[in-house]
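Pilot study result, target chain (225 residues):
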Amino acid sequence: MKLYFHPVSTTCRPIMLFAAEHGLALDYQFIDLFTGAHRQPDYAAINPCCQVPMLEDGDFRLGESSAILKYLADLQGSPAYPGDLRKRARVNEMMDWLNTGLYRDLGYGLIYPQVLPHYKNADAAVQTALLAGARERARRSLSVLDQHLIGDGRPYLCGDEMTLADYLGAPMITVGEVIRLDYSPYANVSAWLDRVKARPAWAKVNEGFYAHFVAPFKDAPFEGL
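Predicted structure:
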């Protein structure tokens, strides 16, 4: 199976982590987002959305990180995507909430407009207002995650074991490290992140992210939470 990817991508890192932990030998096809390779005709012919990741399994192609994780988990029979109907529904619920709730405001609303030029608003007043709104919504979502969705004593997002929700969610939250977000007020979120980042495959999988997305902005001024 081929995975078209970039190592800093928030949507690729969950798949890379899952593959590393499950011994999946994917054929990684590097698509350089920084040079615009994802918008070139040869890649657009593979994925008309011009995005990564894209999984290619024979003549079957599948985009979207969440869908790819579920496909690979089912192929592997992984307990990270439980067979029990209600447990699986809970994982699906959490993954949908991360994608359409928290990350919409944390990533696309607060982080990316400060580091990626094509997300930044040219009008400074508009940019300030958009960041302020995203910050408040991100704080609210982080509080919900901290107090209700994780809560005290739950090791992982959906219970006692690592699931696809954790594979998807941890890379999303750690993008905050690019702008040095302080998650310490969210004790349960911080403990969960530490738990995921302590897994043996995390450091290797995220080498590119820390070297090419976090390190270049280490001295840049940012607005936090």
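One observation from the pilot: The mean pLDDT is 97. A full batch analysis is planned for the follow-on phase.
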